[in-house]
């Protein structure tokens, strides 16, 4: 381990999410540093690294994995490459933060979790939003009974990038589509807030011929024990929203910016009981940095991860059921 007692990271690829969000988050965190970046061409790697002050560059992912001075890797590659490079990183003895969705299906995710376990490395899925302390606050409100018994959850995550030419999200064989890209957030949030797994999924999706047949919009219903229904929609051809509402017998919790956290008052949430509506202040925070430090505490201090690789496998099982339901236009039991 590095003498500075910081986790040393290598980044596989220069995807937008890495350059704009995850790398700055790692750099702002307390327990991490980014030491190297690899891309398919050295020019691309050097360009990305220069803008972010990263010292080392590689023109192949293999070279980066062979570097002994790297403890952990972040994988922001297109969805169909998560499986292969997670397995390779585990084999190289690197801890792994893999972009969501972890894999293309639960079977791949199980193999990835098993490979990480065998190699003795930490594998985590990059759902940054749930590392924001506001979700602990939301769970506290639910647990306190203030809004009564939970009767339902409604979650949205939509945006419109339908005109983007050559976007990886529009490649069916690469794991494109809105369910893989953003529907997975609503699934993970419902499971996290209810603390259990759904028993069935029903999804209707708009598969777009001009986008290689991927789902550009999907609306779903997840059934949980206790007759709780979670409704959600995910879209890449719709106006932007990312909201979460928890409905209780006595009140509601509304999160206007549920997954994207601007780091200001827009990250606050609202609790309404009767005619009393209060705004819950949320400390400004970079949730990518929070995710990075949670990861580092597991690796450096041996802290039990709040979300382990098994959680990612369970999320993939629900995503599998949603994709199957949308494709076959029927209710799928889990």
Give an overview of the whole structure.
With 334 residues, this protein is α/β, with parallel strands linked by helices. The chain is 35% helix and 29% strand. The protein folds into two domains: 7-127, NAD(P)-binding Rossmann-like Domain (Rossmann fold, 3-Layer(aba) Sandwich); 130-289 and 316-333, Dihydrodipicolinate Reductase, domain 2, CATH 3.30.360. The protein is built from nine helices and 15 strands. Helix 2 (42-52) links the parallel strand 2 and strand 3 (56-58). It is globular. It comes from Saccharibacillus endophyticus. Belongs to the Gfo/Idh/MocA family.
| Strand order in the sheet with the most strands | 14-13-12-11-7-10-9-8-15
- Overall average residue pLDDT: 96
Shape: globular
Number of domains: 2
Give, in order, the helices and strands.
EHEHEHEHEHEHEHEEEEEEEHHE
Main attributes of the structure:
single chain, 334 residues, alpha/beta, Rossmann fold, Dihydrodipicolinate Reductase, domain 2, 2 domains, nine-stranded mixed β-sheet, six-stranded parallel β-sheet, 15 strands
